[in-house]
Design a protein that fits this description.
By secondary structure, this protein is an alpha/beta fold. Helix content is 24%, strand content 30%. Helix 1 packs across helix 6. It catalyses: S-sulfanyl-L-cysteinyl-[protein] + uridine(34) in tRNA + AH2 + ATP = 2-thiouridine(34) in tRNA + L-cysteinyl-[protein] + A + AMP + diphosphate + H(+).
C-alpha cells in the first residue's frame, strides 16, 4: 500500500512510520505545520509543532530512507481547532482539542488530501488498535492502558478508520522507546507533549482571556444563592474545578467548593460541594456509531482521555445518545465527548460510539 506517515517529530510517529516501512509499504513522511508562527525551540514537554519538531521529523525520515514533506495546515488548524476551542469555552463548554484535531485535521483534511494524491492510508503514532470483522473496520483500545488513545479517536467514522493505520496499538511506550533507540532514531528519549499544542506555556486561562477579554460575572453558592465573589469570565473555569476559584471565605462546613455549572449568558459560575458533582445520566448529541441501536446497550462509558469510566446502559433517543451510568462520575462537563465501549480484555475493548455531551443529570 501507499502510506502517508504523519510525523510530528516525536518518538511515537517515528516508530509508527518505521514499522510501516518494515511491513513493506511504500511510505512517505509528512509533517503538518499547524502554527503560522511556530516557536523556534521546544521546552521539555511544552507544546509541539515547533521548528525543532519539524527538524526531528525530517531526521527520522532520513534514517528510514523515505521521502519527506512539510504541509502547511495552519489556516485549517486555526479555524477548526483553535477557534473552535475558544468558542466552546466562551459558550461555557469544555472541549477536547486533541479529539477535534484528530477528527478534523489528521483524519479529514490530511486524509482527504492523501486519498486525492493516491495514498491508501494515513499512518500515525496513536496508541489504538484496529480490527476487521465481516469487512468492517473496528476501533479498539491499545495494549498499553496508560497510553490508550482510542477515546480521542472514537469520533472517527468507519470510512475514516478504513484508511487509518495505527502500528503502535499492540505495544507499550517503553517498548516503542527501546525500538527507536535500536533503530538509531534520535527522538528515542524525547519527552512526550502533555500540553495543548497551541498553548505551549500551559496557561489556558491566560490564553482564553487574551482572546475573549474580560467578561465579569459572579461566583454563586448553588445551595444558598449567596454571592461568594466575582470573576473575569466563565471561560476561566471548568466543571469540577477546585483550585483558583478566587473565593476567600471557606464553606460553612469547612469543605472545599467545586465548580458545578457555568452560565455564559448571565456570567454566573455556580459552586458547591463535591457530592453535587456526581452525575448519573448523560445526554450527548452528534453521535458517531458503529452499532445498530435496536434497544438499550450495555457498555462502559468514558468521559475523559484517561480515566472517567463507569459501567452504563446507553440508548438512542430522538437522535441523541442517553447514557445511564451504573456508577456516578464526577466532573462531567458539556462539550466533552462520551465514548462507549464493549469490554473485551483479549482483543481490546471495542469502541461502540462517541458523542458530544450536552447535558448531565
Amino acid at each position: 500500500m501507499r502510506v502517508l506517515a504523519a510525523m510530528s517529530g516525536g518518538v511515537d510517529s517515528a516508530v509508527a512510520a518505521a514499522r510501516a516501512v518494515e511491513a513493506g509499504h511504500d511510505v512517505t513522511g509528512v509533517h503538518l505545520a499547524l502554527s503560522a508562527k511556530p516557536g523556534t525551540l521546544r521546552t521539555g514537554a511544552r507544546g509541539c509543532c515547533t521548528i525543532e519538531d519539524a527538524h526531528d521529523a525530517r531526521r527520522a525520515a532520513d534514517v528510514l530512507g523515505i521521502p519527506f514533506y512539510v504541509w502547511d495546515f495552519a489556516e485549517r488548524f486555526t479555524e477548526d481547532v483553535v477557534e473552535d476551542f475558544v468558542a466552546e469555552y466562551a459558550a461555557g463548554r469544555t472541549p477536547n482539542p486533541c479529539l477535534r484535531c484528530n477528527e478534523r485535521i489528521k483524519f479529514e483534511a490530511l486524509l482527504d488530501k492523501a486519498v486525492a494524491l493516491g495514498f491508501d492510508a494515513v499512518c500515525t503514532g496513536h496508541y489504538a488498535r484496529l480490527s476487521t470483522v465481516d469487512g468492517r473496520v473496528e476501533l479498539r483500545r491499545s495494549a498499553d492502558d496508560g497510553k490508550d488513545q482510542s477515546y480521542v479517536l472514537a469520533s472517527l467514522t468507519t470510512e475514516q478508520l478504513a484508511h487509518a493505520m495505527f502500528p503502535l496499538g499492540g505495544s507499550t511506550k517503553a517498548a516503542v522507546r527501546e525500538e527507536a533507540a535500536a533503530r538509531g532514531l534520535s527522538v528515542a528519549e524525547k519527552p512526550d507533549s502533555h500540553d495543548i499544542c497551541f498553548i505551549p506555556d500551559g496557561d489556558t486561562r491566560g490564553f482564553l482571556t487574551r482572546r475573549l477579554g474580560e467578561q465579569p460575572g459572579l461566583l454563586v453558592d448553588d445551595e444558598t444563592g449567596a454571592v461568594l465573589g466575582r470573576h473575569a469570565g466563565v471561560h476561566e473555569f471548568t466543571v469540577g474545578q477546585r483550585k483558583g476559584l478566587g473565593i476567600d471565605a471557606p464553606a460553612p462546613d469547612g469543605r472545599p467548593r467545586y465548580v458545578l455549572s457555568l452560565e455564559p449568558v448571565s456570567g454566573t459560575v455556580r459552586v458547591g460541594s463535591a457530592e453535587k458533582l456526581a452525575v448519573t445520566e448523560i445526554v450527548a448529541e452528534r453521535p458517531v456509531s458503529r452499532i445498530e441501536w435496536d434497544g438499550p446497550v450495555e457498555c462502559v462509558a468514558q468521559v475523559r482521555a484517561h480515566g472517567g469510566t463507569a459501567p452504563a446502559v446507553a440508548e438512542l433517543v430522538d437522535g441523541s445518545v442517553v447514557v445511564h451510568l451504573r456508577e456516578p462520575l464526577r466532573g462531567v462537563a458539556p462539550g466533552q465527548a462520551v465514548a462507549l465501549y464493549r469490554p473485551d480484555p483479549t482483543a481490546g475493548d471495542l469502541v461502540l460510539a462517541s458523542a458530544t455531551i450536552t447535558t448531565t443529570r
